[in-house]
Amino acid sequence: xxxxxxxxxxxxxxxxxxxxxxxxxxxxxxxxxxxxxxxxxxxxxxxxxxxxxxxxxxxxxxxxxxxxxxxxxxxxxxxxxxxxxxxxxxxxxxxxxxxxxxxxxxxxxxxxxxxxxxxxxxxxxxxxxxxxxxxxxxxxxxxxxxxxxxxxxxxxxxxxxxxxxxxxxxxxxxxxxxxxxxxxxxxxxxxxxxxxxxxxxxxxxxxxxxxxxxxxxxxxxxxxxxxxxxxxxxxxxxxxxxxxxxxxxxxxxxxxxxxxxxxxxxxxxxxxxxxxxxxxxxxxxxxxxxxxxxxxxxxxxxxxxxxxxxxxxxxxxxxxxxxxxxxxxxxxxxxxxxxxxxxxxxxxxx
Length: 350
Prior knowledge:
- A hairpin with an 8-residue loop joins strand 1 (35-38) and strand 2.
- The protein folds into 2 domains: 47-63 and 170-324, Orthogonal Bundle (Photosynthetic Reaction Center, subunit C, domain 2), CATH 1.10.468; 67-164 and 336-350, Photosynthetic Reaction Center, subunit C, domain 2, CATH 1.10.468.
- Helices cover 37% and strands 2% of the residues.
- The chain has a two-stranded antiparallel ribbon.
- The longest helix is centred in the first third of the chain and has 24 residues, at 3-26.
- By secondary structure, it is mainly α.
């Protein structure tokens, strides 16, 4: 073979190798077609970018099960027919039975009633799962009656989070600090790729800071170099606090399947006047999550067995993904509450 032929052959293999490298490099990128939608006045930074192929997959995973036939509201009350009915005892026995059948379908379709009820004695509180379920039922009613600022009239049911699983797929626990030293040196509570923050080097656990504690969510200070008694302003001093905010925003975007511009105008991210109405709804959602985690999830710690607690011994808690699961409206905005208005009533505190 001639030298020229070998040179051309080598060049071809080199081009093929380069093409292969590009294929590998782009394997993690989204392939077209992509859709864009202007959400505000033209010229403003409010354009939503979506991949319809991926949207179809997400929508297919967010289908609503068929509702059970309605039950008559007349007849004896559930509290008069069944023992130890601490919630929803004012429903008719038929309505109560229908709701219990629906909850079984929503939460434990494979395990059945025995997931919460012990050995034929439905009145007993022997299983911790029943105690948790009772409290979660009260929480569901609390959301639907007290947090319309976030859930509006669509509301939530047990299925919104559980999707046919005894334990919702998306819950969070407090995470131990990453190990220090080694090649990474001091990690500064970050530089640990975590799915919750898009596998970035941002702080790996923004949830405790904002969904349990009540740290302010902002990245711009309203005062130059705050110090002294400016305790409310101190958190915005540090670059790490700013990065924690960004980590939380990435969680929002991933949980809802949206861009930053779903809520913000990119011309001025901090301006409320230029933001979309969805930003107000999101703000109420943050307040709601703090309420739920502090009032319902976290206090259940003594109820759970040790195996169900997190690595630091805390109870499972909720974040945006718990309900949204990839859509900006859980279950594509379909209201299951219309078929179960009993879950819209205010729950008695216990």
